[in-house]
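Reviewers of the previous submission asked for a worked example of the structure-prediction workflow described in the proposal, so we include one complete record here. The input consisted solely of the amino acid sequence. No template or homolog information was supplied to the procedure at any stage.
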Amino acid sequence: MTITERIAAELKDNSHAAMLTSPVSRQYSTGFRSSAGVVFITKEKSYFLIDARYFDHASQQAQGVEVQLLTDTRRQLYSIIEEHGIKVISIESKFVTVNELNDYRKLFGTLEVDDSDWLSNTVERMRLIKSEEEIQKVEAAQRIAEAAFSKLLGQLRVGMTEKQVASVLDFFMMDMGADGISFDTIAASGINSACPHAVPTEKQLQKGEFLTLDFGAVVDGYHSDMTRTVVIGEADKDMKHVYDAVYSANTDALKAVRADITGKVVDSVARTTLSAWGYEEYFTHGLGHGVGLEIHEAPTVSSKSPYTLHEGMIITIEPGVYIPGKYGVRIEDMVVVTADGFRPLTNARKTLVKI
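From that input alone, the workflow returned the following structure tokens.
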């Protein structure tokens, strides 16, 4: 069953339709990436209206839809609406702006525009469980990120700036085949590493400092995400203690991952470990998140997570300790949840690397 067929099965009746306009939902439902287009789903048939820039490729690659060249949005949609007797159109409430909502209401006139969260929640629920094809794309992106990281380690030198480090890492990922980078690469050294989402600066790498690298590659729209912390020169006793604490929290949390356990429980395992090491107060964010067509997507793995893990979910496990005015350490892995544990997607070593 195609994704559009699965969405169609969720429609209330033959007079109900769903309209997908977000780039992520378009790709998820059709398998085709584009910056524009409308996917219109009815009980009987699904359509992909797309302009001339993408029409030829979409006609060859899009799945589960009839591809139409978009020339007149109003006329073409009304033709579909009349053919299928549509009276209610659900839109992606979590994507559309207020202006777009008003435009849709004007466009569809007397038809009911369902601006509830139903469609957004339906697609999000489907995206929670990854197909094997999706997993393979995330894994391909991760292999590129790891290869780039391995190559970067041989290039790091005292005196390089954080900006230079991030730029070199980005170049290696693109040179190795990535379609793009997952997000703005984080390269944070010394005192800057105490900020979980630090922005690379002109600060130079110095001996006796941690360097935290958070990065990922994109392959066919699917993201990877990993973090490793290395030391420039030698780590002192306190630095080693912090690193070992985060390493232990990472490995302990991974041992807790399996289907039917909650995100809250996995998060609590990492916090319990850090508490035993004396660092719980310095872990200031959630333990993890889903990864796929978006770098941050459901499910969450945190103290407030409403999710129970299920087989086929991709999540990160990324505990960290951030000591203000000193330094920070984070270690992040991606895994696929299985019935009795997890399948690792991250293969890069986690023991402390010395540069």
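DSSP finds ten helices and 19 strands in the chain. We consider this example representative of the routine output the project will generate in years two and three.
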